[in-house]
Predict the structure.
Amino acid sequence: MADNMRAVSIGEIVTSAAAQDVLVAYGLGSCVAICLYDHVTRVGGMLHALLPSAPDGGSSGNGRKPPSGKFVDQGTRMLIEAVLKQGAQRSSLVAQLCGGAQTLSALGLQDDVLNIGTRNVQAAREALYAERIWIRAHATGGNIGRTVRLYIIDGQVTVKSLGQGVQVLVLALDGEA
Amino acid sequence: MDGQKAIWNRLVSGPRSDSMLRAVMWRVVRGLSTMSGQTIKCGDPRIDRVSIAQVPTHAGSPEAERVGIYLVLRGGLRGQALLILPMSSALHLADFLLGDPLDTATELGAVERSALAEVGNLTVSVFLNTMAVHNPQVPELLRPSPPAVMVDMLGAILNVIVTPVAAVRDDLVIIDTDFWNDQQSVQGRFWIMPDPAIEDLMV
């Protein structure tokens, strides 16, 4: 069965229960990809977020802009809702993180710009902790870009970066509790 | 901000936008030609409004290895600038800048990166100087940041230009100009992006 690549672009959330699907976020720099997978129902999802939180701190329900997958905090909640809607069970969800690099290094730029990758990873950890979802593995930080793939058939996550080839981040989960 | 909006609008959509853009970019490649000792040419600049989700694929495969030379534009005309080159072109350009035979550089070491950073300085400075000539009413000094030379997947490089935009918008305006030398051993793209805080740029 051929793999069906489904790209997850910036600000997007993609979920799947189709065994042939592979969710992929290309060229993560400071962006962070959060992969969620339920090894019991074999449902998975991926968020590709760009910023840790909205600048005004707003979220849905308070009359401000609707929640957006651009932001890690809002996007994580949206991702969880989406995979649950797809049929996943919260009790068996595990997460993997990828990205959050600092690819830019220059004098004279604001610290905020330079630290955005780190802040994205921190926001992801905090959001998942708040939801009681275990982070099984991560490929984050550093100063290199990454492409992450989540294979829905078995939950395997691979990470590719220039000069380092493809590495398996998470081995296949076979009904592991 | 109103002054900047007027300047950017004049560049991207005014009645003389096309001729102004061509004049600006012609000066940029002329400066690049002088600096490199090569005849650098450019195509007609294109102006696109691109969603941030599509930016990573707007210049090719997001996994492709690219060299990016990035500067922030501050002061009287705020925005971002980015030169994008394949690694081979970056190495060849470094050869020309350093006065070495073609294919001398096999990797981007400190010297090669420094030379490419100067390319960023020159192209952006020429752009800003030309804009100042066309817009004498610019109230503040035009101050580019120091350049940053990045070597990475294209998608990761483009993360840098999308990040400051995403907080305020879901799209950005890109003024996109191809450039190349006669032998096609140097090919690249020069992007100029107006400050995303400027609303309602007419593109």
